[in-house]
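Predict structure. Chain length: 1512.
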Amino acid sequence: MAAVLAGTVLGALLALVGQGAAGGAGFGLGRFWFWGWAGSGLRDGSESGVDLGLGLDLGWAGSGFGFGFGSELGSGFSSGFGVGLVLVWVGLVLVLVVALGLAWVWFSIWIWIALGLGLGPGPSLVWIWGQALGLCWCWLWLWGRFRVRFAVLVRAGSALSVVSVPAPVPPGVHLSAAAPSPAAAPQAAPELTPIHRAGYCAFYGSCGRNPELNGSLVSPDVPCLDNSPARLAPTALLPLLRNVCPELVRGDNDTRLCCSAAQLSALRLSVALSGAVLSRCPSCARNFANLHCSNICSPDQSLFINVTRVAQRSSTSGQPQLAVLEYQSFYRRRYAEAAFDSCIGVRLPATGGFALDTMCGIYGARLCTAQRWLDFQGDTNNGLAPLRIRFVLLPDGTEPGGGIEALSGSPWPCRGSPSPELQPCSCQDCAASCPPITAPPGPPPPFLLGSADGALVVCLLLFAFFALLFLTAITCGSSDPRSSVPVTSKRGCASRVSAGSHGAVAKLFRLWGTAVASRPLPVLAVAVVLTAGLGAGLHRLRLTTDPVELWSAPGSQARLEKDFYDRHFGPFLRTCQVIVTARQPGPAVPYHSVLLGSKNFSSVLNPVVLRALLELQDELAQLSAWVEEEQRAVGLKDVCYAPLNPGNASSADCCVNSVTQYFQNNRTRLGMEAAQSGDGTSGTADWRDHIMYCVNSPLSFMDITALEMSCMASYGGPVFPYIAFGGYPGSEYTEAAALILTYSLNNFPSGDPRQRWVLSWERSFLEVLSRFQSTHSSNLSVSFMAERSLEDELSRTTAQDLPVFAVSYLLVFAYVALALGEFTAWRRVWVESKVTLALGGIAVVLGAVVAAMGFLALLGLPSSLIILEVVPFLVLAVGADNIFIFVQEFQQSEREVGETREQHIGRVLGQVAPSMMLCSLSEVICFCLGSLSSMPAVRTFALTAAVSIAFDFLLQMSAFVALLALDTRRQEAGRYDLCCCCGTAPRGHMGPGLRLLRPFLSRFYTPALLHRCVRPVVVLLFLAFSFSGLYLMLQVEVGLDQELSMPTDSYMLRYFSDMERYLHVGVPTYFVTTAGYNFSTMDGTNAICSSAGCDNNSLTQSIQYATMFPNVSYLAIPATSWVDDFLDWLNPTGRCCRIHRYGELSGQFCPSTSTSLGCLQCMNSSRRPTVDEFQHYLPWFLHDRPTLECAKGGLGAYDTAVSMDANGTILASRFMAYQRPLRSSQDYTAALRAARALAEEITATLRRVPGTQPDFRVFPYTVTYVYYEQYLTVVLEGLLTMAMCLVPTFLVSFLLLGMDLRSSIATVITITMILLDTVGLMALWDIPYNAVALINLVAAVGISVEFVSHLTVAFAQSHRPTRVERAAEATINMGSKVVAGVAMTNLPGVVVLAFAKAQLIQIFFFRLNFIITLVGLAHGLVFLPVLLSYMGPAPLSTGGTKHGTEGSEAAMEGTKLGTKGTELGTDGTELGTESSKAGTQCNKGGMDGNEDGTDGTRFGTTNPGFEDAAPH
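Prediction complete.
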């Protein structure tokens, strides 16, 4: 007895253990959840886009299939199969032992009772055998009742009471994703579906919920096992059958089905859900529905269906039933692949992706096959399929046996039409429907001549031509280039005009200078008052810092389009972004997932980094920023973009995209682990499995792993992997080198007080990220930016570089102050110093700039930082040059006998003012023409420069002349500079002071430069430089990359570098339609949409064509289309557009989630809406929230994509496409050009639609276009600006030099060569060409005029007999002044700018101005004298005429010219010895003697230098 009791207890325990083990091992593999959401994606990091997830379940009728974002990588069998099976067998054996023991106990008890009652042996035996028979009957009844359940425990190791009949599968045949082998096929077992015959069913009716599914998104009703003949369809059911499965209708009285009315109704709802996605391609939708119509309702169901697993249940009447849990469906491979091919190209308009992305689980559209497509539909882990369907695709000639015949047929091709009233699939959904598409022309090929660079060959040929022309000219010309130029005794018209104009201008300035020098204090007072008065206008000065206002004209196309977009759709969203990489990247770590296979995980994708990101996001979610102006704190919820809850957002509603959003930013979920089994193996699923799943199915609400976690972000939207990861190879997201965190914030107009909210929050964001970067600097490299970062960094670098500019100006001031003085003796240094005069000259220059800016501010013209940085340098170069020329000429000029100090100043001013006026007037006109530029920054710069130079010239002719008069009075009185109260005794003239540059030019430089063997070499060398510059000019990059605008120590440089290196997302481009187009007509709708029945050249179809050639169009993803989704939303086969037909809500919109019986479809057939229907239902669509029942709702995706007035008229709409990643300014410019060309084609097409207004247009828009539009025209605009600057220079020179054509041409040629060489050197020194460079090149024209014009005027006014001598005289007299006044004024200040932190300053102000100064100096002092020695005009002297301002200075008495003869002759011979010759033989015009009263010594014969021939 004890043994019996022990065996009973042990058997029961073992049975329980076995049952528990089997039940525990049979957990599900996870379920999939998804929701039709249209929410937020990424626009180049700055704009939220839209995407759509769809979930469909066509398995409600019984056979069930799921359709959504998920994956099926396991067979779905219960895990723990082997262990559970062993334990169950042991348990069953022990239970049988226990049962025998119990039977023995039972008999023993009754024997004891019989004996206790005193029954005799006879009655006792009868009693005992009766009990035994009753006990046996009970055991037999129990065995029959639970035999099925015990069989399932034996087969599957499951605690469920399930009947299982194994279907033998020969080797080589697989029932999952792999294709079955043609050599062998599954053999169906007849236990559950014994009859496989035409006209027989495999199951019928509904048997309630699947007991194995608990987390399904829909009610998982399964069919009942029923291998009986198909039922005759009732007449009342035929209309529904024709609507759902028309191919199954045979006739009114002979249509048989294997589905009940309830199953067919459920199938209708499921087909309606699939229609939301697939109805845009009727052939695909029909084929997809036919697959499951055949599975569920086909009268020949048993021919291709074999039930393999069922569950016991009781019907409502108590009758036992077997519910089908799993079955095999045998298809011909060609049939399944034909159906699959009809759907492979169907698009999702809301995402620009493919429908197969939602129907193939983890494989997506790219890796999907017919087998994987069907397997996902039959996978219960997708959350929608109510039972497991194992699709077996058999090639032709392979039969499964057992009477089973694979389902076959001829699916509709996508280019075909299932019925006359339906259209073939459009080109966008079916490549076979596309007309022949010609690839658009790509960029023009490089210009080649043979295999050589064509531009280089042309430049070489041009150089050879001009060099040959030059050599021929000098060879065939005069053999003695120094010979005098014959001058006729009669003056020509040009000579008379030249002499007269020059004399008149010189006389005017002489009189003016004398008058000003006579009254210096009143003149200074008037100048100060006027300057201060104009400078007072600075209080109205507006500094423009907005890049849009600086570089895009208010009337430009991009600005007008931006204003239109902002007015109708609001400003672009703001972006805050963080890029995290490993400080020292290590090798990828391999990981093997039980379900999802093997992947490599990068070193940055680890729990430590993910937890750090979670901490950062938690801190940012709680971040509070103080708004000083409003005395309030704002948080993330106050400024973020919340697409699904914009009215009352919380931090969780904010659109934040990061990898941690796959875990809803939850630490617990990140750390979750679960036991995972699949394919006969077991292991643990953790965060890596979840990420592996989510990167392929980002819209899943539940993965297929044991974790059963959602992939959707906490705000309700998806996180696409190309947004959250960066630097990954191909599509291997887990190998990403960077993790990207993106915050999308609302943007507001500048006058909106909420703009201060978002600016304050962004400032706090940057502070938090700065601390995060510092905290994790040991293991992470963190780069970040906020929308305000660019302006913040520009402002910061401006403040930081102010000391650099201050030092630069101080150096220039110091140089001018020291260089103006001319010292004769140490004891007179403080007297002869010109510091006060130099400071006064600098004050004049700065006063001119201040007065000009104040004057323009009074006129309402804004200024900019570029003006503040460039204009003072430019005006200082021009003004300092004039100061040096004037002062040095005065210092070198001797006062004549009887001439007063004031007359002396006036005479010198009359000599130098014409060239000063020539330069200033040329520059003023040049900059005035430059102000015609369309770019605001260039226009305001040119105007400011023009007015500043004009004011500078006027102040120099007045205030500086007065200052020179006062300084001369001080010096003659022997007073100290800077302290005029003290001084020494007055002394007479002490002779010339110390000079270095002029003697060097006279004795060494000029003779060498103008040597007959050197001059041709100089010309050829500079020609080579010019044509080299012409070639290099073609190599200069056009544009301005963002990183160049940042200082060298800016945190933004790392961000720009990481962005270019890691980001795989292009910016979104909107194709915007203006008013004047009628979307509601059939023609208007068809010209926009891209689904069946739409025009082949519609708007969205044209964009689709463009995406096929991304290297030309720069578009990668087709446009989202609210019109297409609106048409799908109206489809009567779905539940989207419904209306309350009666009751209190009659006539109002009925949401898809409503179960009211009074809700009926808006439209009764699949057709285009009428005009009234379109206008009535469109607002409902735009505000319908997407749900599982209707994934096509427009809220979040399109509610802001259509702008309508109060009458429902569409004023504007937008269609969003995505560009491929753009890396440089050239890419952005080319993308803009291509998008505009595409938009023009679409505009021309849509204008042909009846009813379209002629002013209607389509234009592309993205936030970058307004910046890069300038580069479409900046080259042409630069050439025109340069040409317009050269024209006035030529004209002014021509007029002021008395119509001297040769001098004017020489001036223009030299300036042009300076510009060519400057631009060529830009290419060699990596200086891109853009608007900033254009400003500096315009300034270069002004500086070049200073280098060239003074020397040209000096040459033209020289009276030397030969061109060489005149060139020498001009070089000696003006060369030193140009070097001291222009070059040496610029260089110290320019060199200091090399130490600025701002790269813009380093590149465009240091490098470019350094080039301009050196190139201008080289051409002015080297090339121009040589050029003038060859092509300069004849001298102005004529026979019998005296020269000078009044005709007397050229033949002045010898006493006037010989007072200081020792200064003019190096051989000690006084010039006065031959003075009478100059007076008596002046009528010879200098043919026999020297016009200026010299000893007539010829150039280069007696005197070793040119100073002897140069009058002071």
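Summary: The chain has 44 helices and 39 strands.
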